[in-house]
Each structure stands twice: as structure tokens, then as C-alpha cells.
Amino acid sequence: MATDQLPKVSICIPTYNQIIYLDILLRSIEKQTFTDYEIILSDDSTTDNVQNLLNNFSFGHKLTYTRNKPSLGSPSNWNAAISKAKGEYVKIMHHDDAFTSYTSLEEMVNFIEANNYDYIFTDTKVNNVKKPEESREHTIRKLSKIIRKPYLLFFGNSIGSPSTLLLKREKFAQLKYDSAYIWLVDIEYYTRLFSISSKGNSIPKPLIITHGSAEHQLTSKILTNFPLQAREQALLYNQLSQEASSISEFFMQIYFVRLLFKGKLNDKKILAIFSQPPLPVRIYFSVIKFKPLYFACKILTQLLDMTRKLFL
Question: What are the C-alpha distances in Å from 111 to residues 106, 158, 275?
Fold first, then answer.
């Protein structure tokens, strides 16, 4: 890429302190057969480790590095990196993800251009760094159905991390990751992505690898933070339930109540998050002090949630 030409792809990397997996990511970019890209690295670190690591690479004019002082936090740092993109396409890469193949980026660009899609996803290799025997491959299923019915993402992220995504920059120039979310930020973003355009697809091949269960990751900390999960799930319910069918809305309520049971949550402040607290949620808080009713409702909720796939 000549210095006076705009790149085809902007690889946007928000970073924070850790460099072990960032080094893997940068080396995977260095080896790509597709080279018409720029790298935008937005650094929220409290140390110089990331900046020092860059001395090991020779990306030259392809690399734009910014040190954020003060740190922006997640996901504002994601938005900061994307805001500096100049490419036709934006490829966000989390600092602990990487490309699986030398041809990953080439395959993604070829696929989106050959079909004139507005965005594409790819399957993912999920590397469990603590328990390698539990590593797996995540396959995106029924994407066309999810694009038509984004509220189905309320029941879980069946797509994967934002690193699986490649999209047209100008088409989604106004789309930002919502800083009101931490746990469900990717799901919430996808639902708005699909509302803007239905012209997307996925490559049934793991072109990205994510490193799960690492010490530095927020995910491992949030897994046991049920109040935070409930708060964000309630916010997402407010956003998605209006577009859902009646039966889907009911199962969204049941799914949420099951989360309340799982976390043994008893703070009624959760009710204030809803624009209108659903009946099953109100029932949960009304029976919480009556153990026989509480356990009966818990069993009923589990049984109802188990039937969800029969109806959706």
C-alpha cells in the first residue's frame, strides 16, 4: 500500500496491558498474504509494555499507535480505534485474538467482495488456555434467522466475539459499541448491526482464534457477577422485547428469571431497570421469601426454559 492511498482494510486493535497474546496477534497479521491494510492500535495500558512490544515489528507506515491518557475503558477504546479507520472495511481484532491462517484476511475480503455483503462473520477456534483439552471450534449456525430475528441473541451469543466480524466502514460509520454494556456489549452491537442491514453472511471456516480463560480477561470475572449480568440482560430486554413475538417475549422473561434464580438475586432495584417489569420477574420477587413457592417456581422456570427451542 502506497502512503498516499487509502487501505482496503483497517485492522483496529484496542489494547490494555497484556502483550503475550498481542504478540501472537501481530505476528499473525505480519504473515497475512493480504497486505492492503492499516493497523490502528489504541492503547489503554497503564504500562509501556505494549508500546515497547511494537519495537519488535516493522509495520512502518501501516501502523498508527495511540496511547490513551487517561484510559478510555472498554468498550470506548474499541470505538476510539474504529474512529481512526480509513479503510473500506473495518476489522476489529481484540488484543487476545489472532488469525488462524496466513490467508484468513484474504479469504474474508474475497468473500465479502465477491458477494457484495455489507458484513461477514467467520467461525472461531476457541483455545482454552487453562484447560487445552476443552478447546473447541465455534460454528455459527442459523445466521440468516438471527439476522431476521435479532432478539434471539437475547438467549446467548451464537455468533462469537467481535473479532469474527468484517464490515463496510461507511455503511456503519455511525454504529458504535454501547458503553452502557460490558458483558453483553457484542450482542447488543450485533442487534443494531442487523437492524441497519440484512446483507450479511458467515464463512463456515474458523479463520479467527480466541484465547479463553486467560487471567487478564474480563469474562472470567463477570461469569460470577450475577448482578451485572442481570442489569445488562434487563437493559437488553428493554431494547429487544418490543420487536419480539409474544411467545419469544415470554421466553425472554423466563430466561431472565432463570438468571435471577441462578444468581440467587434478591435486590428489587433490578425491577427499576425495566421500562415495565415483566410479570414472571415480579412473581420471582414476590415468592423469594417463601421457600416452598420459591423452589416450585424455580423448577417450573427451568422446565419452561428447556422447552424454548421447541417454539423458537
Answer: 9, 21, 41
CB 166 within 8 A of CB 112: yes
End of a domain among 220, 253, 273?
220
Which grid coordinates belong to 289?
421469601
Question: In this structure, what DSSP letter does residue 84 have?
Answer: T
Distance (Å, whole) CA 272 – CA 262: 20
Shared-domain flag, residues 63 and 84: yes
Q: Which three three-digit cell numbers place residue 270?
A: 433490578
Domain count, the chain: 2
Q: Do 162 and 16 belong to one domain?
A: yes
Q: Evaluate whether 224 touches 284 at the Cβ level (below 8 Å).
A: no
**Cα 301 to Cα 303: distance, rounded to the nearest angstrom:** 5
Helix (H, G, I), strand (E, B) or coil at 125: strand
Run of H or E residues at 92: strand 89-92
Cell digits of residue 209: 482464534
* Helix intervals (H) in 10-165: 20-30, 49-53, 76-83, 104-114, 143-148
Angle at 268 between CA 266 and CA 273, to 5 degrees: 125
Element (H, E) at 173: none
Q: Which domain holds residue 284?
A: 224-311
- Whether 281 and 274 have beta carbons less than 8 Å apart is answered as yes
The CA dihedral of 44, 59, 175, 96, to the nearest 10 degrees, is -50
- Give the model confidence (pLDDT) of 192-206 as tens digits: 999 999 999 999 999
Length of the chain: 312
Dihedral (CA of 26, 29, 31, 35) sign: negative
In a domain, 62, yes or no: yes
Can you tell me the distance from the alpha carbon of 305 to that of 52, in angstroms, rounded to the nearest whole number? Answer: 50
Using CA atoms in the order 257, 259, 265, 266, what is the torsion angle rounded to 10 degrees?
Answer: -10
- The pTM assigned to this predicted structure is 0.94
Q: Which of 162, 185, 220 is the last residue of a domain?
A: 220
Question: Which tens digit of pLDDT belongs to each residue from 144-156?
Answer: 999 999 999 999 9
